[in-house]
Please model this.
Amino acid sequence: MRTPALLLCVTLLCSTLVACDDGAAATDSGLASDTPRADGGSPVDGGLPDASVDAGASVDAGGADATVEPSVRPIGPRPVTPTELSRGTIFAAPDGGGTACTEATPCDLWEAVDQAEAGDVVFMRGGVYDIRRNLSFRGRGTSPAPVIFESYPGETAVLEGTRDADDEYYVRIYDDPVVLRLFEIRRMPRAGMSVRTSDNVLEGLRVYDNLLSGIHVHESYEVPSSNRNLITDCVVYGNSGAGLSSPEFADGGNSDGISMSSGIGNRVENCLVYDNSDDGIDTWRTTDSYVGYSIVHGSGIASGNGQGIKAGGAPPSATSVVEHCLAYDNRSAGFDFNSGVGVTFLYNTAWDNDGSGFYSGDDTRVEHNLASANGSPFGGGATAESNSWQRSGTVMFISTDPGSPDFLRPSVGGGFEDIGAHADRD
Model:
């Protein structure tokens, strides 16, 4: 009899920001993991707090001590506490086999998925899992809790594809909801992770170097069925179809970092998204989407659009909310309503984007935002209120150092401290 596992809460600590150089052409994320290690192993974490950081610890952010501020919600990924080993009920390994799926005799990942039922915690031993056929993470009920799939504590499981456009296999979530935590997905020939059902949680994942979007939430436009998914504390970067001219890849034009192409009430929180060939975060054809406390930069390679955060698209796109985000060094706008109906941009900072800091529609709500050093601060038809471009003076920042917790925080006494991503956080 398996022991039911309870879903752990996310640790809401660490005020570290991870950002890039202040140069106009900067593309560095501030992470040493911009590219995988030469030996093919997992990327080295050079700026984010480690997933195993103790909840009460102070975290070093690229050389600057960042003390935990329990009353202030951080921007960017937070530490994620691993599930306790004692909760493990099924075990997989890259070289696993058979059907025992125990810690002593682990099975392969496909067998582990097939056996998992509501309440199980599936631990994946560290190493590279060779993904050359379809893999569907799926739950079977939600009582006492959805199935959790997670790296074995202290190890990192890496799901790796061939990155060959001629291959058509996928990694997806399908059927009852699941929780995916603390592992990596890379080099998939399509999206890194395809989410095609509702109420899933993706937490503490690294998704990079895939040919289409890193994480893609989608299903039917007519009857939205991928709803209320939560993508939190993830790092998504380097996803690009540049150089592939077929309509599917569009020379990089269909490779967002996080793409939500349908659904109601999906959320992206505390994520770092950078160097993706199309847009950073895109809420295309969704309703009531939320993007908050996230960092996006370096969007736009080859034929990609290059928006930082895109908050709309074709019908039924409506009522996306974007708040407390940093968007910088993107090839186009930092924040773009993209034809979405009733979009809200509230307490965000746009810096050093080639296009507008913010671009709006007539019914877009644009309030308490800060724009500096962009192609233009603001464009579109909204009646904006209490934004930096509506005040006198020049925005100055405490720091443009990527290792500083004060990155893009307005200088004290400059008249802009009450607006932008750093203001009014809770």
Remarks:
- Confidence is low (pLDDT under 50) at residues 1-69.
- The two ends are 42 Å apart (CA to CA).
- The helical segments are 109-115.
